[in-house]
Design brief:
Blueprint lengths: L6 H25 L7 H9 L21 H14 L1 H20 L2 H13 L4 E4 L15 E5 L2 E12 L6 E7 L9 E7 L5 E5 L8 E10 L4 E2 L5 H37 L1 E2 L2 E2 L4 H29 L6 H26 L9 H10 L8 H12 L3
Parallel strand pairs: 1-4
Antiparallel strand pairs: 2-3, 3-7, 4-5, 5-8, 6-7, 9-10
Length: 379
């Protein structure tokens, strides 16, 4: 398994960086730190060819082959490095559309994927509930037969893109007595009678909210086979957990680059602080940790793209190490910047807030450790 980038992957990374610098960053900076949906940025991600990286060409995207985890990781890493608001939108566009790509019927793919690729619609992945966070299998949202369709009742919480998403992938119990083998996935469109939601407000501005369901759904809303929802959810997270690590690498790289520039320009005691051994040691540790995390992320992505059905162990390792690494690296970047690093709105201060959530969503660091341990202790 090679962990070096192919020429095509290097060009993809360069394309994302150029697009971010030319179009995405100006839109994000003009918008500022607000937690409403930036539809101008959404449309630009579609028009400029970033969202199409997530969708096969037959559904309006630019993928000529199967979905590639490495493409997802490179896109998230580069966007996080140079334009975190665009990275957030790219990530959730993928998280919400991948279950449709993974398990949807041809009719469902043809209906939902083209507008997602064009940036005309945004999806959401609705798994977490008020009492089912780390214990995602403890969800209580239920779907029961009603005529030729379904009655969906329950609540979801901490759902990215809620309450403004155009379509939600919702996981609900259809046969409660069967545990995780009795969970199914449903597609619920915005405006469905009985669907309501409200926004939540987090440390770093993010479009996220709560949802409540008491909806009548048609039979065609079932995504994938009945009672296969847990497999769809875990198959999605298997890919996207490693890409959370990629996002963390991008944020850490941004903090490192800013720290190097600051260390070279900041003069104390008559010389740049880059000449102080204390600063040099910090930078050495930061660079080493970033490289180690990047290799873990690329390894998980390469393994998935090589045809491995599951990469749960590798994805959990990548997410755990990279998100914890980003916390350490950004914290050291604040230390290097001193007082300016804690000024509200400074790039380092914003990175500090952006990096914190990665250790929680899509499985906390503690849950990742349990997943890893269980794999290591299997007979």
């Amino acid at each position: 398994m090679t962990l070096t980038l192919t020429p095509a992957e290097q060009e993809l990374r360069a394309f994302v960086a150029r697009t971010a610098a030319r179009v995405l960053c100006p839109l994000a900076e003009a918008w500022g730190e607000r937690d409403e949906m930036n539809w101008d940025l959404v449309r630009a991600l579609g028009k400029e060819g970033v969202f199409p990286l997530l969708v096969p060409s037959r559904y309006g995207g630019s993928l000529e082959g199967p979905f590639r985890a490495m493409t997802l990781c490179l896109g998230r890493e580069e966007l996080a490095r140079c334009c975190p608001p665009a990275e957030e939108l790219f990530a959730i566009q993928g998280l919400g559309s991948y279950p449709i790509l993974l398990a949807g019927s041809e009719a469902q793919k043809a209906r939902y994927l083209p507008p997602i690729a064009r940036g005309e619609q945004v999806p959401a992945f609705a798994l977490t509930e008020p009492e089912a966070g780390s214990d995602a299998a403890g969800l209580t949202t239920a779907a029961t037969r009603e005529g030729d369709g379904w009655r969906l009742r329950g609540e979801k919480r901490f759902i990215s893109n809620a309450p403004v998403a155009d379509v939600y992938v919702v996981f609900a119990r259809t046969e409660p007595e069967r545990g995780t083998r009795g969970i199914s996935a449903f597609l619920v469109e915005k405006g469905t009678p009985g669907l309501s939601g409200r926004p939540m407000h987090t440390l770093a501005p993010h479009v996220i909210g709560e949802l409540a369901f008491d909806c009548r759904l048609p039979a065609s809303s079932l995504l994938g086979p009945l009672n296969e929802g847990w497999r769809i959810a875990m198959g999605t997270l298997d890919v996207f957990r490693a890409s959370v690590g990629a996002q963390a690498v991008g944020l850490a790289q941004a903090a490192f680059d800013l720290s190097v520039a600051h260390a070279r320009s900041r003069v104390q005691f008559g010389e740049p602080i880059a000449r102080f051994q204390a600063i040099q040691m910090k930078l050495a540790d930061m660079a080493t940790e970033i490289r180690a995390a990047r290799l873990l992320v690329y390894s998980a992505a390469r393994l998935k793209d090589s045809g491995a059905e599951r990469v749960t162990l590798e994805s959990s390792m990548a997410k755990l190490y990279a998100t914890e690494m980003a916390h350490r690296v950004v914290d050291q970047a604040v230390q290097i910047h001193g007082g300016t690093g804690v000024l509200r709105g400074h790039p380092i201060e914003r990175l500090y807030r952006e990096a914190r959530a990665g250790r929680i969503y899509e499985g906390t660091s503690e849950i990742q450790r349990l997943i890893i341990a269980r794999h290591l202790l299997r007979d």
